[in-house]
Amino acid sequence: MRSLSIINQKGGSGKTTTTVNLAATLGEKGRRVLVIDLDPQASTSAWFGITDAGKGLLDVLTDHAELIDQVQASSALGVDVIPCSTWLAGAEKALSGEVGAETILARKIRKLPKSRWDYLLMDCPPTLGILAINALAGAQEVLIPVEAHVMALAGVAQIIKTAEVVKERLNPDLELTGIVACRVDGRTRHSLEVVEQLRQRFGKLVFKTVIRENIRLAEAPSYSQPITIYDPRSYGAEDYRDLAAEVIKQERG
Ligand SMILES: Nc1ncnc2c1ncn2[C@@H]1O[C@H](COP(=O)(O)OP(=O)(O)OP(=O)(O)O)[C@@H](O)[C@H]1O
Ligand SMILES: [Mg+2]
Questions:
Q1: Which of 106, 137, 139, 173 has a CA-to-CA distance to 39 between 20 and 30 Å?
Q2: 11 alpha carbon to ligand 1 midpoint, in Å?
Q3: Does 17 score more than 70 pLDDT?
Q4: Quick one: pLDDT at residue 153?
């Protein structure tokens, strides 16, 4: 099972949109995917139509429950979800002063049946707090969505730095899988400039696929459907299929 933290401390960078729709397009291509919603805003959970997740994931992090008991099937082919709710905001407080608080999720992930899923995708909150650190400590890979509407280079450098510290201190296996430009508006020079700068600065780490600005992606959560179901022929579905293909290509080598 490959495990990826989908992370960027900048709000609104496309983490949730990428988590949900990469999961759905990987599922379409025959991969079995488990998604963990680690953001107390619970937007990934809501996108999958789950609004009553309760304390489950918080109980896992405080060692009163196991991940496997939180798994729910989703409407997307091949995709299971471990949802959360605003209860998860209590994690910061509940874990403060706990020995080993940063690696509790890693220990719980190790207990999951490895052969049941091909991918684990974790949607992170827009802060580099205890939840994001748990995601980085528990994943093998980091995937960074970047909103191409803003100058995002400094923010990307900061996450990479944090991931390096986590790698050194908590998780030697952690690798940077890639950076994906999201909300790319081909009509504005600024948007294309951001993509160009990302490529200059981070080279091959930037996925060839860019996710274009597409209203259908913004509408889909209101219908509790990933883009593959909401509008399978949209640009958004096309772009996330291309991204899934690139991610799958990395499987060997
Ligand atoms: N390719 C896209 N085209 C159009 N709208 C998009 C696209 N990607 C994301 N959005 C919109 O941009 C906003 C932010 O996206 P998203 O929620 O995925 O970011 P996020 O990084 O998860 O945010 P947060 O930090 O709050 O968790 C949302 O309103 C979403 O619908
Ligand atoms: Mg989000």
A1: 173
A2: 9
A3: yes
A4: 83
Cα separation, 253 vs 70, in Å, equals 32
15-28 and 235-249 helices, crossing angle to 10°: 70
User: Within 6 Å (CB) of ligand 1, which residues are found?
Assistant: 11-17, 39, 41, 43, 126, 182-183, 211, 213-214, 217-218
Kindly list the distances between the CA atom of residue 83 and the CA atoms of 50, 98, 148, 229, in Å, as whole numbers in the listed order: 7, 23, 28, 20
Q: What angle do CA 212, 239, 207 make, to 5 degrees?
A: 85
Contact between residue 5 and residue 136 where contact means Cβ atoms under 8 Å apart: yes
Instruction: For residue 120, give the 3-state DSSP assignment.
Output: strand
Q: In the predicted model, is pLDDT for residue 87 greater than 80? A: yes
Which CATH number belongs to the domain containing residue 130 in this structure?
3.40.50.300
Q: Say how far apart CA 253 and CA 250 lie, in whole Å.
A: 6
Count of structural domains, the chain: 1
Summarised one tens digit per residue, pLDDT across range 36-60 is 999 999 999 999 999 989 999 999 9
Predicted confidence at residue 94, as pLDDT, reads 93
Q: b/e per residue, 173-192, with b = 16+ CB within 10 A? A: ebebbbbbbbbbeeeeeebb
| Closest protein CA for atom 25 of ligand 1 | 11
Give φ, ψ of 127 to 5 degrees: -145, 155
Give me the DSSP letters along 205-235: GB-S---B--HHHHHGGGGT--HHHH-TTSH
pLDDT digits (tens, 9 = 90+) for 208-226: 999 999 999 999 999 999 9
Atom of ligand 1 minimally distant from the CA of 221: 31
Residue 25 belongs to domain spanning? 2-249
